[in-house]
Write a structure and sequence with these properties.
Blueprint: H1 4-21, H2 25-31, H3 36-45, H4 64-74, H5 81-92, H6 95-100, H7 103-115, E1 120-123, E2 139-143, E3 146-157, E4 164-170, E5 180-186, E6 192-194, E7 208-219, H8 230-266, E8 268-269, E9 272-273, H9 278-306, H10 312-337, H11 347-354, H12 365-376
Parallel strand pairs: 1-4
Antiparallel strand pairs: 2-3, 3-7, 4-5, 6-7, 8-9
Helix pairs in contact: 1-4, 4-8, 5-8, 8-9, 8-10, 9-10, 10-11, 10-12
Length: 384
């Protein structure tokens, strides 16, 4: 699937991670945020924020295999928060805007997002509606040529640095899958406020906050595509979000395995290295094998996505496997580090905390299992 052009892209991303991200991770982790716009402008100058986006708006118009190569290399960052934040910009907040937005919207918001001059956020989750997207309560009521938006969004990555939010809101009282719209909402508008940064278990380099909307007035022309089509658009966006997230875990987990091999080779107990114990090196070989299975699943789903097929099932499987494997690999590796693995700034312990989100965000394991079961035709009949 990968050509010389893909390898050149990988090399560019690898150099960026090594020079612009990893040297700064320790203090970004302590600060609970990183300078998103400064990093995004550098990524934008390299063309990395619009790999699959239309050329007319500054993108490279390449197929999604290039985005997967980008996501994989981004995963080599020594934290999960910065890659997550970048993925929000490229694969969560802007796909629907790029595909369905009006030319005016794309000129005003997509072009500067691709250039890195604007930071984007995606506003879907709420305190009472995480994986259950249909249960959101935020409303955008018609008022002449405008919407008046009221409600709150929770766990929003990039929240306090965002220039605009791609917001999912109820624009009518109709059926829950046909009454929602995606609306671009600039964050400088009156009526928008933010909580303090949320104190998270992991992903600490990315700023995350709750956002409140109190009669926020937005022109109706900021609606992406047709009114009422927001739920469908968000489900389409999930295909890219889940593929990107799964791809992003690969090099992070590979880094955990590599670091553990290096540490256990040097660390000695009972007159031999920890790595010389068969239980240790057999387990690491097993984990590497599982990781290659994940990589193969991501690549297959990507090839089918490029071919225009619906990959909801495969993307859900990849996301599920990435979340489960993130827990398994980081837990096993941390165990082999012993007491050093229990230290806060250890690379493996950080991955242990950061990658735990993979089984929660973008659809919890239980939700994606339901999607897979539905595709298999084995969902239980509803009672009553």
């Amino acid at each position: 699937m990968f050509t010389e052009e893909h390898q050149q892209l990988r090399h560019t991303v690898k150099q960026f991670v090594e020079s612009e991200i990893n040297p700064n991770v320790e203090h970004w982790e302590r600060d609970g945020a990183y300078p998103a716009k400064a990093i995004f402008q550098k990524l934008g100058a390299l063309g990395l924020l619009g790999i699959t986006k239309p050329e007319a708006y500054g993108g490279l118009n390449l197929d999604y295999s290039y985005q997967i190569a980008f996501a994989e290399e981004l995963g080599a960052a020594h934290c999960g928060g910065v890659p997550l934040s970048i993925g929000v910009q490229t694969d969560m907040a802007t796909p629907a805007l790029a595909r369905f937005g009006s030319d005016e919207l794309r000129q005003q918001f997509l072009s500067p997002a691709i250039a890195g001059d604007m930071v984007a956020a995606i506003g879907v989750s709420e305190p009472g509606a995480g994986s259950d997207v249909a249960a959101i309560k935020t409303t955008a009521r018609s008022d002449g040529d405008d919407y008046l938006i009221n409600g709150t969004k929770m766990w929003i990555t990039n929240a306090k640095q965002a220039d605009f939010i791609c917001l999912l809101a109820n624009t009518s009282d109709g059926a829950i899958h046909r009454n929602k719209s995606l609306i671009v909402v600039p964050t400088h508008l009156p009526g928008i406020s933010f909580s303090e940064k949320l104190d998270k278990l992991g992903m600490r380099s990315s700023d995350t906050a709750q956002i409140f909307f109190d009669n926020v007035r937005v022109p109706k022309r900021y609606c992406i595509g047709e009114e009422g089509a927001g739920f469908t658009m968000q489900m389409l966006q999930f295909q890219e979000e889940r593929l990107f997230g799964a791809a992003m875990t690969i090099k992070s987990l590979e880094g955990c395995i590599d670091a553990t091999i290096e540490y256990t080779r040097e660390r000695r107990a009972f007159n031999q290295s920890i790595l010389d114990n068969q239980a240790v090196h057999f387990r690491l070989a097993e984990l590497q094998t599982e990781l290659e299975c994940l990589r193969a699943l991501v690549y297959r789903a990507t090839q089918e996505y490029i071919a225009g097929q619906d990959v909801t099932n495969l993307a859900s499987m990849a996301k599920l496997k990435a979340g489960r494997l993130s827990r398994e690999i980081t837990d096993s590796c941390l165990q082999f580090w012993g007491g050093m693995g229990f230290m806060w700034d250890n690379l493996v312990s950080r991955a242990y905390r950061d990658q735990r989100l993979c089984s929660i965000g973008g659809g919890a394991d239980e939700v994606v299992l339901g999607i897979i079961c539905k595709k298999m035709g084995i969902l239980p009949k509803r009672q009553g």
